[in-house]
Amino acid sequence: MKALVTGGTGFIGSHLTEALIRKGVQVRCLLRSTSDVKWLKGLPIEFVHGDCNDKASLEKAARDVDWVFHLAGVTKAIKEETYFEVNGLGTENLIHACLENNSRLKKFIYISSQAAAGPSQNGRSKRESDSCEPVSFYGRSKRVGEESVLIHAHELPVLIIRPSAVYGPRDKDIFAFFKCLSRRIKPCPIGRQQHVSLCYVQDIVQGIILAVETETKSGEIFFLSDGNDYRMGEIGDIAAQAMGITAFRIRVPKRMILGIACFSEYLSKLFRRPFLLNKDKAEEMINKDWICDITKAKTLLGFEPTVPLSEGARLAFEWYKKEKWL
Ligand SMILES: NC(=O)c1ccc[n+]([C@@H]2O[C@H](COP(=O)([O-])OP(=O)(O)OC[C@H]3O[C@@H](n4cnc5c(N)ncnc54)[C@H](OP(=O)(O)O)[C@@H]3O)[C@@H](O)[C@H]2O)c1
Hints:
By secondary structure, the protein is of the alpha/beta class. It has a domain of 207 residues: Rossmann fold (3-Layer(aba) Sandwich), CATH 3.40.50. The protein is 41% helix and 17% strand. The strands form four sheets. The chain has a seven-stranded parallel β-sheet, sandwiched between helices. The chain has a two-stranded parallel sheet with strand order 7-10. Strands 8-13 form a two-stranded parallel sheet. Helix 1 packs across helix 7 and helix 8 crosses helix 12. The model has no long low-confidence stretch (mean pLDDT 94). The structure holds NADP nicotinamide-adenine-dinucleotide phosphate (NAP). NADP nicotinamide-adenine-dinucleotide phosphate (NAP) binds next to helix 1, helix 3 and strand 7.
């Protein structure tokens, strides 16, 4: 089998690329001129230059592959338009490049996000059949990406994965939380009662591979998480315990999050670099439950997550220490 991975230089994409190679799949990765290939060094990969924002540059990448794993995307941006340019239009460009240049494609997998569906309501886990109510520009742009994929479900075998928040080695976002814990601070944003789903990166990779290998109807959508429902207040406790650290809880009220987000957005524009926290992320965080139901993935794909937070936090922490990030 031959596969194209977009976003292969990133956090989830680099783990997926390694796993595909271990399975004997020939992997082609899309690279931009600015891409950093440090996680892919030494691996037998065919690199093809291209950018999701430039449709013509995707032709070569899309040719002669059996599977496409589309992970390229932006999770934080300085300008709102960037989310839609990359996550929306970029996805449409790749779909068209596949339709026009590859008649043998067996499956196109789009890695969307729980953010595309929006938060869960009334304490009930979000299901694939629920309506989509994204609350951020990021979430709306991932939903636009999903729609670009679904519109072609009759002519291309497509499948959408919606991961919950993903953590693990190489992640730079939830890493900020590990950094606070290592400094003995347990940040607890908003209410301790908020609920979220999480997933260790190897479990997400396992789910993506099952999705490509299992026969599915074109246009199916699957949520993926570790299957647990974590209270915001207990995440720090579980992670700190796994790391063998005693940390002090600091409650971060809604107004403080918004204030930090505004300041961070200002700095982001000043330094022309997207920062982790901005008003869009704050909008996602405040007063929302983010739990998803993975029954469909378990039933139809045989997905069985194996790494709960207590174990995943330990593995991530050990990796951060080994790599001297902490
Ligand atoms: N991490 C999570 O918690 C999470 C949760 C749910 C869904 N997701 C989704 O999973 C995917 C991967 O996330 P991640 O956390 O691994 O992100 P990441 O580490 O930031 O990686 C993003 C990847 O996208 C590539 N990319 C960005 N813009 C591109 C463009 N215009 N053309 C081609 N490639 C481009 C980047 O390439 P360069 O190396 O050139 O920058 C990089 O390889 C994203 O689509 C994200 O929305 C992530």
